[in-house]
Amino acid sequence: MVHPILDQSFFLDNTHKMRLKEEFKIEPWTFEQHVGEAVIIPSGCPYQIRNPKISVTFVLKISYPIFLFLSQFKEQKL
Fold first, then answer.
1. Helical H runs in 1-78?
2. What is the pLDDT of residues 22-72, one digit of tens each?
3. Residue 5, in any domain of the structure
4. What one-character DSSP code corresponds to residue 15?
5. pLDDT classification of 19: cutoffs 50, 70, 90
6. For residue 42, which of 24, 29, 57, 25 has the smallest C-alpha distance?
7. Domain ranges, residue 73
8. How far apart, in Å, are the Cα atoms of 7 and each of 10, 53, 73?
9. Where is the JmjC domain (predicted)?
């Protein structure tokens, strides 16, 4: 199955980002990452990466027990 966003064949432009903000109250962040910088994306947050140059990507998925407890606590509160 082809998925335009997950396959990185389609990226959100400024028009799409404005529409997300106006219609759904979602404000996407856009930033440039430079050599030597790390980016931490919280678990569950959707993200999209565009690599204008050849790069190495390292993804580390960490689950701490306290986060599992907090997510269960949040579900109980809902």
1. 14-24, 65-77
2. 999 988 888 888 888 888 887 777 778 777 777 777 776 666 666 666 666
3. no
4. H
5. very high
6. 29
7. 14-32+41-77
8. 8, 17, 34
9. 1-77
Residue found by looking up tokens 């689950």 in the block: 63
Number of domains in the chain: 1
Q: How many CA atoms lie within 13 A of 47 on its CB side?
A: 13
pLDDT of residue 39: 83
Tokens of 5: 């966003």
pLDDT score, position 24: 92
Structural domain includes residue 4: no
Name the DSSP class of 74: H
The residue that leads in pLDDT, 51 or 75, is 51
Residue type at 72?
Q
| Cα of 69 vs its chain's centroid, Å | 22
- Residue identified by tokens 């986060």 is 67
